[in-house]
Structures are given as structure tokens and as C-alpha cells.
Amino acid sequence: MESRIIARFENVEHGIVSKDLKYMAYLRKNMLFLTQLHDKSMPIASTDSNSIKVSNLGVLDYSFDPGSGDLLWFNGNYLFRIHPKMILDQCSSGQCTEEFLNDQAVKISVNKSIQTNTRVLALEGARLITMQGREIIEDGTVIIEKGRIKEIGHSDSILIPESAKRIDFSCKTIMPGFIDLHAHHDAPPDVLVDQYSKLLMDLAFGITTIRDPAGKPQMQAYSEMAQTGRLKSSRLIPFFALGHPHFEIKDYQDALSWVKREKQRGAIFIKIHDLWPRKIRQWLIKAARNENINITGHADFSSYTTSLDASAFFDGLTGVEHAIKIGGMYDDLIQLIAKSQTWYTVAGISEFDNHSKFKKFFKSGTKDVEIFKEWNKGETLKKFINNKDKISGEDSKAALYLGSSVTLSKSGGNIGIGSHTDTPGLPYHWEIWQHEEHGLSRHRVLELATLGGATAMGLQHDLGSLEKGKIADLVVLNGNPLENIEHTANVHTVIKNGNLYESKGLFEAYFLKMEQQKQNSNSQ
After folding, report:
1. Pairing mode of beta strands 207-211, 235-237
2. Which residues, in sequence order, are CB contacts of 431 under 8 Å at separation 6+?
3. Higher-pLDDT residue of 463, 230
4. Which candidate, 150, 118, 148, 152, places its Cα nearest to that of 137?
5. Res 388: pLDDT
6. How far is the C-alpha of 173 from the C-alpha of 484, rounded, in Å?
7. Which ranges of 413-496 does DSSP label H, i.e. alpha helix?
8. Could you give the 3-state DSSP secondary structure of residue 433?
9. Which of 53, 310, 354, 492 could connect to 95 by a Cys-Cys bridge, CB 3.0–4.6 Å?
10. Is beta strand 52-55 parallel, antiparallel or unpaired with respect to 148-154?
């Protein structure tokens, strides 16, 4: 079959040609362009100057209808379907107006209720670490109704409804569910699976909320599946990562348009990467503030000369991810970060020299739940990595970064607890343990892992503490983490939206899913 070049494009990520060979649509820096192809024997060199910018907000997918010839694309949950000729006629200035596009948009929505337990639950006899100040209630009872905490207090003061399912948690500890502020779950792209195995392991370890700052589109879909009960998972926080140079921002209006688009898609967070010039970063921060959503910065603090340098703490970012990798922080920088009230999530476990050893062990897999749960014990971990005293080691870079994080917290700064690993569940608890090892009190680090995480995301009115009216995201522990911090990983039961999950059952479901995935892979 004879082939010929009909167009050449530069700096284009992807392009498609209509069936009649009259038009080509392409993506450049996540913006959708349309150009008309001419029936000539020689190829044309097409640039943005002879193309129409159809959408400056990026698209999730786009195609030409082979029947009608219409150009179709999605932006959030809006479908656009317009014939190329109409685009060329209506957008003669070189860019389609927002008014024109809004007239063509078709909103697609599926309404489904959030999954909550319809039964009234009475959790009786447990020690309650409420995170309301330093309150500890011995022999406490929690009443849960319609996925929220109805009543909480000492068992003698709580009237239990006759219709309630009563569960005896004597000798157990109940506290708010853990919140991982920086976790990565690289779910398969371009397809949604009915159960993604890594999310089972996080839930088994009592992590009821996850913020994945990679911001991949499929995680937003999984977030909705988790809310409606189609997916057994922790709560997934919608996020969008604005990486440079994959997007084009020429002015404040461009920045505002991007932020508005992601808010429309459900994001409550924007993440920006290191290489954006400071002026553009300031536009994005202003836009995020205008739209009342949080914005965090991915930091490459290998030196003070990077784009995202100490000025990040002057400019109004609500958070900064990763360690400042210049050694220990001096007091002037500590005080700057503390006064900025920026949430600094060091993710020390990702700097842990021996973490790759555990990842290799973890990926080898084991079906025995009890063997795997041996990793809940700090002594087992220290033996594996040949550290006698601390998980991170006395002289490692991780110890240096974690020490600065603890000093920042003690100086009045905001620090987050995040695992930053693609190994689910347990590394998050190592991050908790390491902060305690480096000088935070047990109650303080538990507070940061719960209420602190909720506050960093602006969700403290719904999550992070055991209070009347808040969402019933709780974890039931077999031991008391105020006596031994390693009891955070000794999980008996996890409760999310009032739905109960036995930790052991989640482990077993995880290993079963892993075995199924392995068999499917071998059969292909």
C-alpha cells in the first residue's frame, strides 16, 4: 500500500487525522488544536499559527467520528462534539471562545449514593484517642449512624439505641483513621480494574485516606469508585499535578483556567513541579487561592538554586513535598517555614537507604498473612536492614531530614506524614515510627498522622478526630500506640464511612488478588 506524508508538526505529543483526510487534530502541551489539510502532493508544515486552538484547558481523550466527521473530546465530565468546519468558521480568530464551547458542551453525570453502613453501630469498651486536644477516654463508646459519628464518650454516659449492632472492643484502642499525605499508587493506565490490589493493603493497615500527588486521571475515577463502594479502598483525594514543561501558561488567565478546570473535575489540590519559573508559580498560587483549593509544590531542594527554592515559603504554597536535601536546616530556615505555616511533608522513608531491599522482598510476595505481619514489628525491620537503634540509621541522610522535620514541628511548623512509596501500607507506619524515634512525642506524631493530615487538606471539619458529626473513619488497634508506637500497625478492624473491614480479611483478599494477577500475567 502506498503511503505519503500529508503534514509535519513540531513539538506535538499526539495527533490524529480525520477519515476524509481533510483535518488533523493534535495535542501540544495538553492543548487541543485543529488544522485543515490540503490536497497537495507535497506535505504541508503546520504550526500553531495556521491552526485553531480548540481548547486551552487540555483534554482527556479526543477522536474524529468516522461517520459524521465530528471532532469529539472530553474535558472533565463534559463532552464536546463539533464538526471541524464549524470550528473553522466560528473560531476564525485562531482560538475558540469560552462562550462558543460552553454552547456545545454536554454534561455527563451518573448519580450514585456514597456507600455508608445503613446500620447503627455501637463500638463499646475501647480506649479512645480522640485527637480533641490530648483527650483519652478509657472504656469509651462510639455510636455510628449513616456513616458519621452520632455520639462519643465514656460508656457510662452513652445511651445505646436498641436498633444498634453492638461490638465489644474491650482492651482495644480506637483512634481516627490514618491519613497518608503522600502516597503513590500507579494504577494501570487507560483501564479501570474492579479491585486494585495495593489499595486493599493500605486499608488493611488502617490508612483510611490517601492523597496521591501524582495526580493521574485514573486515580480520580478510582476515587469515585471508592466513594460509591464499587472499589474496596481507602478514601482517595482528587488531585492534579501540573508538570513543566507539559503545559503552557503565558499569563494569570491561563493559570486560572487550568485551576478552574481541575476544580471542575473534582480536584481539591493542585501540585506544581520544580521547573516552573517563579512568576508562573505565583500566578498558579493566586489562581488556587481565588478558587479556594490547596496548592503544593514538588520540591527538588538539592540546592538553594533550584526554581522551587526557599521563596516557595514566601509565595503562599499550602504545602511542599519532599526533603530539603541540603543537609540539616539551620534555625533561620526553620523559623521561615514555621511562620509560613506551609505543610512540609518530608517523606523520610523514601530517603531510607534500605527501602529498596524491602520493596524487592515485598514484590516477591507471600501468601502467609502471619509471616507478612511480622513486618509490623520494628525489631524485625531493624534486623533486616542491619540497624540496631533506628530504622533510618544514626548517620543516614534520612535521619538528617527527619531530624529537621521534627525540629520544625517543635518550632511551631506544620509537618505532614507521608510514605511516598509504591509499596502500600507498612512504609507509612515506618514514617510514623521514625518521627517518634527522632524526638516527637507519641501523641504528637499520632495527631500529625490523623488530624494533621486532615488539616493539611482542608478536611479537618470532616476527618482527623473522633468528634460528634464527623465522618466515621476509624481504626481499631490491638494495642496502645501511646505505650508503644509500633502498635499503629497492629490493626484489628478498619472503619471507613461507617463500613467495617476486618484487617486480616483485607490481607487475605490482597494476596488472593496478587495471585490472580500473577496467573493472568503468566497466561498472556
Report:
1. parallel
2. 347, 348, 349, 417, 418, 419
3. 463
4. 152
5. 45
6. 12
7. 426-437, 442-447, 453-456
8. helix
9. 53
10. unpaired
User: Which cell numbers hold the place of 332?
Assistant: 533561620
3-state secondary structure 228-272: HCCCCCCEEECEEEECCCCCCCCCHHHHHHHHHHHHHCCCCEEEE
Q: How confident is the model at residue 286 (pLDDT cuts 50, 70, 90)?
A: very high
If we measure between CA atoms, which residue out of 417, 439, 437, 436 comes closest to residue 428?
417
Q: What percent of the chain has pLDDT over 90?
A: 40
pLDDT digits (tens, 9 = 90+) for 193-246: 777 778 888 898 999 999 988 877 777 788 888 888 888 889 998 777 776 666
- Residues 185, 427: Cα–Cα separation, whole Å: 13
Beta bridge partners, 78, equal 75, 107
Joined together, the cell numbers standing for residue 127 give 480506649
Number of CB atoms found within 10 A of residue 326's CB: 14
Reference 173, options 484, 521, 395, 510; nearest CA is 484
- pTM, whole model, 2 decimals? 0.86
201, 506 contact by CB (below 8 A):
yes
Distance CA 171, CA 477 (A): 9
- pLDDT score recorded for residue 229: 86
φ, ψ at 4 (rounded to 5°)? -150, 155
Query: 366-420: per-residue pLDDT in tens?
Result: 444 444 555 444 454 544 444 444 555 555 677 788 889 999 999 999 999 998 8
Parallel, antiparallel or unpaired: strands 61-64 and 31-36: unpaired
Amino acid at 209: T
Contact 268, 237 (CB under 8 A): yes
Q: How confident is the model at residue 47 (pLDDT cuts 50, 70, 90)?
A: low
**Residue-by-residue DSSP string for 383-397:** HHTT-SS-TT-SSSH
Residue 377 Cα to chain centre, angstroms: 27
Kindly report the backbone phi and psi dihedral angles of residue 488, in degrees, each rounded to the nearest multiple of 5, phi listed first.
-60, -30
User: Is there a contact between 343 and 456 (Cβ–Cβ < 8 Å)?
Assistant: yes
What pLDDT does 266 receive?
80
Which residues does residue 79 pair with via DSSP β-bridges, in sequence order?
A: 74, 106
Q: Which of 264, 255, 233, 314 is nearest to 510 (CA)?
A: 233
